[in-house]
């Protein structure tokens, strides 16, 4: 048994966390450029603190990141050496349409990604492209209010038509929105939403979500028209919620927490707003404005596969005395006493990945693709930049084994697996460089110092062996 013969092993990055070159090639300013490192970061990404341009008091790590804009050939060669079958990356919207509302795309931006995709194919690597990994041109934020405006659907359509047409034959796997449920948790980072005083935030978030869902369905329609070979997926930040106890109230709390995240995927995969979501919006006085034909359109253009990130499971309870929060990945959760945690407080739960895979596959009966999974840790390199990251190998091996169990023993249909941050990059949650995920060490610190030199960690050769054995050999020797 084991993984399918054409299983897509690889790694994942996001343009705003690795690319840099924020002013080069005609690129415009984006929301993701304006998230500073430090104590103000969360207020900015949550849409609570207005930061629409750079200031002198903050450091903005996305400006240069790890400068993959100038290093992509070197980086892709290293991915090729590991044997990657796929490389998940994202397109910076403001590279293609610097303002976002132009009628014609920016040729320099289109050419950059064309060259990058051709470089991937040189090594037999299939690009898996996220159309929007939190990016939104700042001009669209300031002029239209970002995704709160229905006009955004048309601007997104222009982006999709430009890239689907230009990259036909170079890219066949697409994701519409990265972690679409992030709009509820980090709305400025996730969708360019900044809230004015007195605004009904929930109303704005769910209206913006409807526009994104319409845009996602439109992208799916266009992708299939441009090239019937195209496969389009949705993407959610996943991790099943456990009930803290078998008390029925806790069990129901865990169901409700799961539903909050499944809501978006229910629409993208099943093509309709679920009854529980409509009831929840009604209770909260949320009135999502729709145009005639929206619901039919959503039904007609559902995704081909379900992709997701998984870092940890979560726990739900109704007991206020137990609400000690973990530090995890923007999604707060009650601590699970049965699990260990990473240096950043994320709880490590390989079996939780298998549980999550089963939950998603049972719910949607569509192929799954794990597009983010990994361990953020402080790596200490020797004088040659080598890191003996056995802790990372152990984490990944346990998760790949759980993944294999879900395929072999549970019959889950899994297309592929891309580890998060296959090369060290800027953390989306904290903006730090010291929170590293990669098989490749990049000499850069939290303040932007360093040579940007790339060097292989111990996990580099380990993952190479995993890929070569199609996931059969997970030993660390």
Automatic annotation (TrEMBL):
Gene3D superfamilies: Glycosidases. GO terms for cellular component: cytosol. Transmembrane segments: none annotated. The active site is at residue 372. Keywords: Glycosidase, Hydrolase. The keyword Hydrolase applies. It comes from the Bacteria. Signal peptide: none annotated. GO terms for biological process: carbohydrate catabolic process. One of its GO terms (molecular function) is beta-glucosidase activity. It holds the Pfam family Glyco_hydro_1. Belongs to the glycosyl hydrolase 1 family. This is 6-phospho-beta-glucosidase.
